[in-house]
Write the structure tokens for this entry.
Amino acid sequence: MMDSKEILKLILPEYLVEHFNITKVEELNSRLDIYFEEKNDYGDQLPDKQLVSKGFYPMTTIEDFPLRGKSVKLH
């Protein structure tokens, strides 16, 4: 049986599933809003480098493909 992360990869772009956490999901009348927070876990990709966080970009909204007849907004 597939775990929840593998199922999410079938619905959402794989990059989002790997590099972001879902923080909130709102179901409105004909729209689904999914909110993400970027993971801050890139240290294992460059183990010999000391990384310094400079923060993240402001939130943006992307209109994704409809899901079950509802428009989908990714925040």
